[in-house]
Write a structure and sequence with these properties.
With 321 residues, this protein is an alpha/beta fold. It has helices spanning 3-7, 24-34, 53-66, 87-91, 100-103, 117-126, 140-148, 183-187, 189-197, 207-210, 217-225, 230-240, 256-262, 308-318, and strands at residues 14-20, 39-46, 74-76, 112-116, 131-135, 156-162, 202-205, 271-280, 290-292, 298-306. It binds ligand AGV and calcium ion.
Length: 321
């Protein structure tokens, strides 16, 4: 049973701050999040990592307008990690803004906050308690927020982060890297280390969990079969832009961020977490590697087991809204 069913009438909504980095699956995650009735989305902040900031901002505003959520502030991040994403990956999501439904969609620039991403995160935390932070890009904005106002960490219930690779290979294929790191953790390895050391509850959706969810034509066919729902049709088109990647592990497109988003709704045995003492390497050749460190590591909840069918069925159901 989903949390959504449990919470419909009885309890307060779960407050969420969503920080993403504008990739195609980040945008799909925003769509999925906006279908969840049990979520109170306080703000969306953007990390200029696997995207260009202007494209990601427009996509975010358009999706929010599509869901009639022009009340949610959007914070633009201006901090950059030390290991830039490849330029062609950063440009890839631009295509989303010219799909017909997105091109025809108006948006409200007034939603853009005067505050930077990390300032907006702290402004939200100042006025709320028990907040979940969903993060589907590098953790630079959040860590900058912690450094500015450490006392606000206590307002956070947990941080659900798509990042890291614990017992499986990473997806960084660079000349000065040994392939042990996942990209979000690698972009700003020092911030990744600081997040783990911060003392907040981190629920990690790393490649160990996401490897079972490559973008799959069977799933897209099921989504296409319900394309009379505009959001299913649009999601199907977004995912279609990801299937022309090189068919090797480092390049294959997975449903990374979408799985992390599902953690907010599927809180039974669909996605199971285990506590692990984890640390983050900060220098080459393994910068960004999230490795087991029983002696000096930090307590992190890592997802290993995923009920793939339950996750896919949940997404199909949500996209019939
Ligand atoms: O490592 C996964 C993260 C996710 O947050 N991102 C993409 C997702 O939004 C980086 C990434 C890894 N492989 C990629 C990525 C690929 N083949 N194309 C684009 N981005
Ligand atoms: Ca992402």
């Amino acid at each position: 049973m989903t949390l959504q069913n449990q919470q419909n009438s009885t309890t307060e909504k779960q407050k969420v701050i969503f920080d993403h980095d504008g990739g195609v699956d980040d945008l799909l995650s925003l769509m999925l999040l906006l279908t969840m009735d049990h979520i109170d989305l306080l703000a969306v902040t953007i990390t200029p990592a696997d995207c260009y900031l202007s494209d990601a901002t427009i996509s975010t505003l358009k999706i929010l307008s599509m869901f009639k959520r022009t009340d949610i502030p959007v914070g633009k991040g201006n901090l950059h990690g030390e290991n830039a994403f490849p330029a062609d990956w950063r440009a890839q999501p631009k295509i989303c803004n010219v799909l017909p439904d997105m091109l025809a969609q108006s948006y409200n620039e007034k939603q853009i906050s005067d505050l930077s991403a990390e300032e907006l995160i702290n402004a939200c935390l100042t006025h709320a308690d028990n907040v979940s932070v969903l993060m589907t890009g590098p953790c630079t904005n959040l860590v900058a927020a912690f450094e500015k106002q450490p006392e606000l960490k206590q307002k956070i219930k947990n941080v659900i982060w798509m990042g890291g690779a614990v017992d499986v290979p990473g997806n960084v294929a660079m000349y000065n890297h040994d392939k042990s790191a996942e990209w979000n953790a690698y972009w700003d390895p020092i911030a990744s280390q600081k997040l783990f050391a911060s003392g907040v509850v981190v629920k990690l959706i790393g490649l160990d969990a996401t490897n079972c969810l490559p973008v799959n034509i069977d799933f897209l066919s099921q989504l296409a079969a319900q394309k009379e729902y505009p959001i299913s049709s649009l999601a199907c088109q977004f995912w279609a832009t990801t299937i022309n990647t090189i068919p090797s592990y480092e390049f294959t497109y997975f449903m990374w961020d979408v799985l992390a988003t599902c953690v907010l709704a599927l809180q039974g045995d669909e996605i199971t977490f285990e506590p692990v003492k984890l640390n983050v390497a900060t220098e080459e050749p393994n910068a960004g590697q999230t490795y087991r460190d029983p002696d000096h590591g930090f307590d992190i909840d890592v997802a290993f087991k995923v009920d793939k069918d339950a996750v896919l069925n949940y997404i199909l159901k949500q996209f019939t809204c």
